Amino acid sequence: MNRRVGIVSMGYHGFSAVTPDLSYRELVYLAASKAYAAAGIEPQHVDMFICAAEDFCEGYSISDEYCNDQLGAVKKPVQTVCGEYLQAIGNACMLIQSGLGKLVVVEAHSKASNMKTHDDVLSFGMDPIWNRPLKVTPHFVAGLDMHRYLLDTGTTEEQCAAIVVKNKANAMLNPSAAHAGRFTVADVLRAETVAWPVNRLSIAPRADGCIVTVLAEESLARQLNSSPVWITGTGWATETTALETRRWGSAPSAEIASQMAYKEAGITVPSQQIDLFEVDDSYAYRELQALEALKVFGKGQALHALDEGRLGPTGDCPVNVSGGSLGVGHLLEATGAQKLLELFLQLSFKAGERQLPDVTTGLAQAWRGVPTTTSAVVICSNE
Amino acid sequence: MGYNKVACVGAGITRFVRRAKETGRELAWEAAKMALDSAGMTLKDIDCVVMGTAPDAFDGVHMKGEYLADGSGGFCKPYMRHFVGGGTGVFAPIHGWQHVASGKFDTCLVVCEEKMSSTFPHPQGAFITIFDHTTEQALGPTLIWIFALEMNRYMQRWGLSERDVAKVSVQNKANAIDHPAAQLGQKITVEDVLNSEVLAWPVKRLDISPASDGAAAIILTNEHKARQVTDKPVWVSGVGWCLETAYWATRDLYYPVYVEKAAKMAYDMAGIREPDKEIHVAEPYDPFDYKMLHHMEGLLLCKRGEAAKLVADGVTARTGRLPCCPSGGALGVGNPIAATGLMKIIELFLQLRGEAGKRQIPGDPRVGVAQAWGDLMQVGTVVVMNR
Amino acid sequence: MLNEKLPGTPMSSEEFEKAITIEDHPALEYAWDDGVAIGRYLKELKNGRIVARTCSGCDRIMIPPRMFCELCWRPTDEWHFVKDTGVVNTFAVTRVNWDASRRGPNEPPLMPAVIEIDGASKGMGILHLLGDVDPKKVKIGMKVKAVWKPEKERTGAITDIKYFKPY
């Protein structure tokens, strides 16, 4: 049963460091209104809804119970996935491919500004017996991984800092970006050490916002949008939460997830067949690590691509031209949504000043953050 | 409608206990391993894993789906956790169905786990966080308020007494004596229920299922794989789920419209037109005794307001025309929230294969329905299974 | 068939006391943006009034107020003050606190209720408490009125109403 799935529209509101004027309900209503209006649909036409959310990001339990009014999904099939947005997209594709639904909506939002003790929440995600009692900043997990990555690949802290510079500069052309700016490598290296070698500026700062995606089975997608963006491959994987036994330095979950997606999309040489990449840069080093896990470059080769300018917006392998999480803001479980949004805009030729020429295929990859090893990948095409 | 057929081919479950020595991961592992063994499969045969587990606040771990991945077989595999409150346990096979029916995966390991005992001073306290943080939490609500408010409204609407409702607890706890996982299988009387401590009138201690630790797991496969693994696959022939508004105080609580909608979605898929005649065995969710009645009506197994009479007349007993909760239900087996729903699915699986041992209902049951419920009296999840 | 002996080791509370345990008291703090609708709701509670929103699509008068109608899928239209009286839709009586501790012998029971507010649409209720009434005398359908905190003690919270009592 190979039903093709298309993105009909994406509606969003954001992204900014705070959103004091809107409750989470009002925020989601705005984004959903835009998504439905762009698709020319009413929520009563939608078959199923999927929300991506975590209780401790929202600050209340059973967050799924509060997700549907503001989507117009009252008395509808609604499910919440405690996972990355891109996993929820993969789920939505399965719903359409099963034939059970023709029109499916996916939502996630970030109200990170409402989390007063975010690092404590991250620590709360760690094993309570083996890891939490150490009482170290949760970013230590990224520090361990980054250190291993630098060692294994010969990447330097300067090169990681250059990722921060690139992405925040890219974000200057993104009107939705919350954390754009002109930085130098020296600026980044001067920043406060958080968990060496991770420093403050290399951690993607958080932002608030909401993104709603309307997906449809092929013939309906074509009715609603003259040029939908097709989802050609999805994949997701978890390696292990155990810090003690995971493979440090190489992001195996991103590799497994991308292999699943590549197989579906018929991608064998990603660097040639994919025109733009929006990958995890929640910590700057992760962009280079992801590109290698995704086999865009061989192990220890991403740093050369960076130095040669290939990853910039005018390079042959543009990465995070939206500004990434470093420039746009990290949106908790909606982070992958922002990456998918960039693909959607670019492949629809609606990316304004940041529009890349002649793009046909894009890849979005996101990671669920410390202390997880869960990644998800979505590949899209406008052909 | 031409969906890929999805079958359940194996099951595993741990004991449900108030306080387990095992960690959440260990409980999940026990159930998952048992399910794989029962199907003669190993983790290598599993293409993807789906995890159902209810509020993170219980286990005291943020992103507890990730925390449980190792114990659930989600190692270097596509692993996804879904969450629909108390409806999770019956949504788990639905989530698994979505994975396999799509054709993207051939096999799926579905695991549900709950470790409520981690919360101090008492798991009940975690439930305050399910209420609206601004308009409700300051009033100091508990989960039991919800049940008491709903039970009162339901009883008042149909002129039922606490005695009428207590019969469900008596039936289910007695049924549970025969369930090896049971936490509270016991012979009690209606008087015992009526005399038990009032927790929030009209709800009394023996009207309620206990907080529990436990895990359950099933294996779902496509038709091709199912026929390789077993000669008695049980098909997941209908799935339905529905979420009502979060503004729960604007709804008349006496009837679960959302359960009915979910049930109709599942019945339509399964080709069932007269559930009260075509369903041979039912496992409606029974965290509180009146809920089994409430849900029997929502599942269209009887007319509104008539469920209590069916129980009183013995229709829902194991030897009755429409056995409900032959497992012993949450009331008798225990209620480790997500695992309870999957326990009910496993009961259907065993009953339809004639493998429910002392709990086996007579005749040749071929069609069953399981249902779970949750959130602020909002979500209905329904699965129809048949041989 | 399930084995008679299933895995899972029950522990009694005595065994639990003796086990090695790890305690964690995480600092999990949130400050939720009230937004437009609830922001106004709370502000009016401080003023001793209950405010709702109307939707001309379905003709509902809704509390708690919302800026969008979840049924019509359109923005709501106007603010509308409703009364602080109502009718009990359902209620419960309990001596158990939120953390499972029991109320003291001199403490009155808690009586949570869904109260359909007069002036709002039929069935439009809010969760609150009943007070100053003998639990045995409470009935579904009973008419009740809000008992407010004195003005200077109100902070803009649902607890600015202490409870509802029959009138």
Brief synopsis:
With 387 residues, chain B is an alpha/beta fold.
Would you mind describing this structure in some detail?
The complex is a heterotrimer of chains A (383), B (387) and C (167). Chain A has 2 domains: 5-116 and 208-229, Peroxisomal Thiolase, Chain A, domain 1 (3-Layer(aba) Sandwich), CATH 3.40.47; 138-203 and 231-381, 3-Layer(aba) Sandwich (Peroxisomal Thiolase, Chain A, domain 1), CATH 3.40.47. Chain A contains 14 helices and 11 strands. Chain A has helices at 24-39, 55-58, 85-98, 118-124, 140-153, 157-170, 185-190, 218-224, 252-265, 270-273, 285-293, 302-307, 324-328, 335-347, and strands at 5-16, 48-52, 78-81, 103-111, 193-195, 198-199, 208-217, 229-238, 276-278, 361-367, 374-381. A 9-stranded mixed sheet of chain A has the order 3-2-4-7-1-8-11-10-9. Chain A is globular. The mean pLDDT of chain A is 97. Chain B has 387 residues and is an alpha/beta fold. Helix content of chain B is 35%, strand content 18%. Chain B is built from 14 helices and 11 strands. A 9-stranded mixed sheet of chain B has the order 3-2-4-7-1-8-11-10-9. In chain B, strands 5-6 form a two-stranded antiparallel sheet. Chain B is globular and about 50 Å long. In chain C, the strands form 3 sheets. In chain C, strands 9-8-6-10-11 form a 5-stranded antiparallel sheet, with no helix packed on it. In chain C, strand 3 (68-69) and strand 4 form a beta hairpin.
